[in-house]
Amino acid sequence: MAESLPEHDRILQEIESTDTACVGPTLRSVYDDQPNAHQRFMEKLDACIRNHDREIEKMCNFHHQGFVDAITELLKVRADAEKLKVQVTDTNRRLQDAGKEVIAQTEGIIRCRVQQRNITTVVEKLQLCLPVLEMYSKLKEQMNVKRYYSALKTMEQLENLYLPRVSQYRFCQIMIENLPKLREEIKEISMSDLKDFLESIRKHSDKIGETAMKQAQQQKTFSTALQKQNNVNYGRNMHLGKSRIWESKNEITLKRTFEEEDEHEEEVLTAQDLVDFSPVYRCLHIYSVLGDGEIFENYYRKQRRKQARLVLQPQSSMHETVEGYRRYFSQIVGFFVVEDHILHVTQGLVTRTYTDELWNMALSKIIAVLRTHSSYCSDPDLVLELKNLIVVFADTLQGYGFPVNRLFDLLFEIRDQYNETLLKKWSGLFRDIFEADNYSPIPVANEEEYKIVISKFPFQDPELDKQCFPKKLPMSQSVPQIYIQVKEFIYASLKFSESLHRSSTEIDDMLRKSTNLLLTRTLSSCLQNLIKKPHIGLTELVQIIINTTHLEQACKYLEDFITNITSISQVTVHTARLYGLSTFKDARHGAEGEIYTKLNQKIDEFIQIADYDWTMSESDGRASGYLMDLINFLRSTFQVFTHLPGKVAQTACMSACQHLSTSLMQMLLDSELKQISMGAIQQFNLDVIQCEFHDFLDLDHMLLQCCCPEGWIESINVSTDHILFASSEPVPGFQGDTLQLAFIDLRQLLDLFMVWDWSTYLADYGQSTSKYLRVNPSTALTLLEKMKDTSKKNNIFAQFRKNDRDKQKLIETVVKQLRSLVNGMSQHT
């Protein structure tokens, strides 16, 4: 124990005297000793700490009074330091104020000395600068008196001789800087004449173009007349004397023509007469002397491009009148006539490449403008005048060497627009013709009237020619009028094809395409709209079918007409065919369909006025009045169909019978009809018999039999062998019992209820030989349930009568069996 205490003191001394990073081994030795050494070391360490605390406390007590005194002295020094700071700041301010005055006086002295030195330098160098100033003054004077050429020479002397001697001075630099400005001033002054020239061109451009277009048109007219005269002379083979006479006459004629042209040219001013080109030459010379010829060329071309854009910009209302187009074309022609003149009288100012580039730009803009504005034109006459203007415009510029093929290509697009306007115009003409037509055959009282009609329309009928006057042509008044208008359309379309530099074959093809559009689109649309109009009845529809048949036959004459006016041989050249055949066939099909529809609508109108007493105890013994009116209407209508093709009349008759049968069946099975008596069934059966029969003498006898309940079944059996309406052939051409099939469903259903043959129906149901094969179980069930409800309502005391009870049980039994059949059909489905 005693040994460990000195060891702990040594460890504590090492810890106090050793660096902190090296105390690890020393502390580890504490844990390497005896087991309780650590506890004893901690006690020793606590004792050592207490000793140091006591020493620190003694030291602090000893120096405490000195610390307090030092703090008191420091507070006194702070107050003195504040005073010292204020004094230093005030001293610095007064020193700065005193220094400003000294600095200002010093700077004034420096400026005075610099001025003295500069004055001395100016006096020494002034004699050297005076010649330069004199030459510059001379230059200004020359500028004032507009002696620009001398001024240019003076500027050359200044630059080459005088200014290099004094180039180090500022005023010389100013002169050097002003010399380009003076040159620019000279350029601007000379350029003013050029601007006046450009303004004059802008004002007279339309007049120049109008003059050039007139001259080109006169030249073309003269060349055409000369060519025709040469062709006539070349085709004649005459003796020498006579040919000399003709030659002399031709010379006189041509001489007169040339004299007239010369006189006309004297009256019409040329571009040189309207515009003075001398400012261009002078300005070009000045810029060339200055060495800025290229700048002048660029400026001139830039300004002309701007003017070109203004010229190419059309007025918004240009498409309204032909004068707007003429003014537009005249300005453009005038612009390029001036450019062509500048090209030929100057060297380099305008080049062929430049004019071609400008023309291509203008041509694209012109085409875009014409394409847009021509689309606004709805008057074919205006479009035709526009075409003539474009042709003159193209011929004029072509004479000056500008390519115009794209303009003729544009004419083909405008031709389509022209055709569209023609189609719209002729659409109105066709509508007016159809509105004014009475849709009845054309009456002719004598040979003269007949020839007038034949001269308008190619009609041939040997059978009709054999008849005596007065007589009627099968078509109505609209047929020759339509034929004439189609020919007028071809003439109008041909007008646009003139002067387009196209061959006869191409013109023939264009005419045929335009005529096909007229037939397949315009006339076809008018016919379809006519057919759909409410006021067009069955008689009118029949006449329309006849009219389209004759128009279809006249298409070959239209083809011959086009061939004649274009002088194209169909033998050597393959030509397109007209599509009138399909157009008129489609119109006939539409009229036929409308006939079927109107017949069905008329049948529906008669059906709607039917007024059955579905609870009557027995029938009236005669057919209903509405049905008699309906049958009379159908017979009179079918008589009108005698002029129609057989298939059309047969289809209309069959469609009417089928629709009538369907309508009667729907009336019988209407869901709103809740009760039907046997008397109503008998009356309904009489109406159906009336639909089937046409021999009214036998039918009246049969109706008398039908009034007797005892003879009813026998009369029905006789009716199946009676002459049916189908066999009466209201429209010729039906075979066998074709029309009878239209009423077969209704007939079998009524026979089933009239004969009350339910055992046969139920026994033979589903067999191909069944007598009631066309009777559907659901249909029979619906009708039977309506009769069942009526039987219950009318027979209040039926339960007291055995026959009525048996009949009611029979009906219930049949209803159950029919329901089972219907359920079986639904499950099978």
TrEMBL record:
- Record flagged with keyword Ribonucleoprotein: no
Domain of life from the UniProt record: Eukaryota
Which InterPro entries does the annotation name? EXOC6/Sec15, EXOC6/Sec15_C, EXOC6/Sec15_C_dom1, EXOC6_Sec15_N, EXOC6PINT-1/Sec15/Tip20_C_dom2
Q: Which UniProt keywords apply?
A: Exocytosis, Transport
Exocyst complex component EXOC6/Sec15 N-terminal domain residues: 44-213
Where's the Exocyst complex subunit EXOC6/Sec15 C-terminal domain?
407-786
Summary of the function given for this chain in its UniProt record: Component of the exocyst complex involved in the docking of exocytic vesicles with fusion sites on the plasma membrane.
Provide the family line.
Belongs to the SEC15 family.
Q: What is this protein called?
A: Exocyst complex component
Organism of origin:
Apteryx mantelli
